C-alpha cells in the first residue's frame, strides 16, 4: 500500500477502503506522508468527494489518532452543542446554564476565535479569574457538581485533525462536506458526550453560504453521529445578520447575562430556547419540546439559570460580581457612534462585514498569535426589518484603535442594506435535520 496509488484511486473517483484511509491518516500524523502528497489527496477528495462510508472511516481514523475522553463518571445523559461559527454567537453561555439548571449535564470543550468568528473561551476570559484550562478530573468533578463545565481542549485529542486542518487551511481544501464533517465529528465523538445538537449556520456570516450546502453538511454530521451511537440533531439557522446585538467578547458576555435575566435580544433568546428544548428531550428530562420549553422559560423567570451561570463562574475561579453588575466589564476607552446615510427598511445586514469590522477594532484575531482587546466590539442598534431614518443610530463601536475608526464606520454602513420592506419576515430557524 502506498500514498501514490491512493491518490490515483481517488483521482479516478474510486472508493477508498478503511485500511487505505487508516494508512493515510496514520502516515500523515507521524510525518511519513509529506505535505505535498497529502495536499494532492485532499484536492482529489474535494473534486471527487467521499461517500458516507469513506467519511465515517476518515472520522474514525482521526478520532483514534490520539486521546479520547471518558466521561462515563458523569451522572446522567451528557449533552453537548456545536456551532459551525457565526457573528455574535454567544449561545453556549446561555444554553449551558439553562439546561444545567434543569438537571441535564452540559459538558463542553470549546475553542478560541479566529478571524471574524468569536470563541467561547475568549469570551469567558472577559470575566477576571476564569479558569478555562481544566484537567479531565476537574472537568468531570465540576459537571457532576453543578451539571456544567466549559473548558479548552484537554489532552492530545484528534492530533490528525489538527494537522490535516492546518494543511487544508493553506491549500484551498476546507470547503468539502466530508472533510468538514469528519473534522467536527471526530472531535465531538472524542469528547464523549451522549447527545449532541449541531447549530449549522448559513448565510453571509457563516461558513456555509446557501441552504443546500448546509443541508448536505447537516445530514452527513447527523448520520455520522448516529453511526457512532450518539443521539444527534442538527438545526440550520440563519446568519444573514449577527445573532443578538453584541459583537465582541465582553459585550457578548454582558448580552448573555442579560439573556439569562430575561432581558436579552429576542433572536438569541429564541434560539437558546429551541436548542435547549431539544437537549432536554435528548437528555430525557422532558417528554416533549413544549414541556421542555416551559421548563426553560421558568428557569429564566425564577433566576435559576442566572444563578447556575454564577455557580459555574465561581467554580472555575471567576469573579461573580461581574455577573451581578455587568457595568464592571472593562470596555475599550474609545466609543464612537455610527449613523445611517439612508432611509428605509433594513433588508439585510452583512454579518461577515460586521464580523470583520469587529475584528479590525481588536475583538478578533488575524492570526492565532494575535492579542485580543476583550473590551472591543460593536453594539448594533438596528436589525433586519427595522425602519431607519437618515441620521438614525445604526451601531456603537468600542476600540483602542483610533486609526481604524473611520474605516470601520464605513464598513458598518456598507453592511446595512437599506431599501423596501422585505416581503417575508426574517426566518431565524430554517430547518431541523434529525
Distance between the termini: 38 Å
Q: What does the main sheet amount to?
A: 4 strands, mixed
Low-confidence stretches: none
Strand order of the largest sheet: 1-4-5-13
Query: What CATH architecture of the largest domain do you see?
Result: 3-Layer(aba) Sandwich
**Overall number of strands:** 13
How is this structure best summarized?
The chain is an alpha/beta fold. It is built from 17 helices and 13 strands. The protein has three domains: 3-49, Transferase, Pyrimidine Nucleoside Phosphorylase, Chain A, domain 3, CATH 1.20.970; 79-157 and 164-324, 3-Layer(aba) Sandwich (Pyrimidine Nucleoside Phosphorylase, Chain A, domain 2), CATH 3.40.1030; 331-419, Pyrimidine nucleoside phosphorylase-like, C-terminal domain (Aldehyde Oxidoreductase, domain 3, Alpha-Beta Complex).
Amino acid at each position: 500500500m502506498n500514498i501514490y496509488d491512493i491518490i490515483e484511486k481517488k483521482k479516478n473517483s474510486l472508493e477508498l477502503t478503511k485500511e487505505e484511509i487508516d494508512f493515510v491518516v496514520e502516515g500523515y500524523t507521524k510525518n511519513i506522508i509529506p505535505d505535498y502528497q497529502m495536499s494532492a489527496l485532499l484536492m482529489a477528495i474535494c473534486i471527487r468527494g467521499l461517500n458516507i462510508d469513506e467519511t465515517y472511516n476518515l472520522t474514525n481514523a482521526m478520532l483514534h489518532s490520539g486521546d479520547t475522553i471518558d466521561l462515563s463518571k458523569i451522572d446522567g445523559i451528557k449533552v453537548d452543542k456545536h456551532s459551525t461559527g457565526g457573528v455574535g454567537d454567544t449561545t453556549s453561555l446561555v444554553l449551558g446554564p439553562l439546561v444545567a439548571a434543569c438537571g441535564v449535564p452540559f459538558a463542553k470543550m470549546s475553542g478560541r476565535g479566529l478571524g471574524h468568528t468569536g470563541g467561547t473561551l475568549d469570551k469567558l476570559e472577559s470575566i477576571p479569574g476564569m479558569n478555562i484550562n481544566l484537567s479531565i478530573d476537574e472537568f468531570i468533578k465540576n459537571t457532576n457538581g453543578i451539571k456544567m463545565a466549559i473548558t479548552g481542549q484537554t489532552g492530545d485529542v484528534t492530533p490528525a485533525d489538527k494537522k490535516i486542518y492546518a494543511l487544508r487551511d493553506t491549500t484551498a481544501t476546507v470547503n468539502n462536506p466530508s472533510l468538514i464533517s469528519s473534522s467536527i465529528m471526530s472531535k465531538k465523538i472524542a469528547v464523549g458526550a451522549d447527545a449532541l445538537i449541531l447549530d449549522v449556520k448559513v448565510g453571509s456570516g457563516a461558513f456555509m453560504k446557501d441552504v443546500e450546502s448546509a443541508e448536505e453538511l447537516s445530514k452527513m454530521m447527523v448520520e455520522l453521529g448516529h453511526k457512532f451511537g450518539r443521539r444527534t440533531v442538527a438545526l440550520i439557522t440563519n446568519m444573514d445578520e449577527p445573532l443578538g446585538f453584541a459583537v465582541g467578547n465582553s459585550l457578548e458576555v454582558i448580552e448573555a447575562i442579560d439573556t439569562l435575566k430575561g432581558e436579552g435580544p429576542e433572536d438569541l433568546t429564541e434560539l437558546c430556547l429551541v436548542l435547549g428544548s431539544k437537549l432536554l428531550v435528548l437528555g430525557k428530562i422532558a417528554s416533549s419540546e413544549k414541556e421542555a420549553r416551559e421548563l426553560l422559560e421558568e428557569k429564566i423567570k425564577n433566576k435559576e439559570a442566572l444563578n447556575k451561570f454564577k455557580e459555574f463562574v465561581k467554580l472555575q475561579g471567576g469573579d461573580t460580581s461581574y455577573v451581578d453588575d455587568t457595568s464592571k466589564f472593562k470596555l475599550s476607552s474609545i466609543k464612537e457612534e455610527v449613523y445611517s446615510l439612508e432611509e428605509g427598511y433594513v433588508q439585510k445586514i452583512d454579518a461577515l462585514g460586521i464580523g470583520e469590522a469587529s475584528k479590525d477594532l481588536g475583538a478578533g484575531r488575524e492570526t492565532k498569535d494575535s492579542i485580543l482587546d476583550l473590551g472591543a466590539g460593536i453594539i448594533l442598534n438596528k436589525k433586519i426589518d427595522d425602519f431607519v431614518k437618515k441620521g438614525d443610530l445604526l451601531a456603537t463601536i468600542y476600540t483602542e484603535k483610533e486609526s481604524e475608526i473611520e474605516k470601520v464606520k464605513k464598513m458598518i454602513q456598507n453592511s446595512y442594506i437599506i431599501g423596501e420592506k422585505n416581503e417575508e419576515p426574517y426566518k431565524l430557524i430554517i430547518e431541523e435535520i434529525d
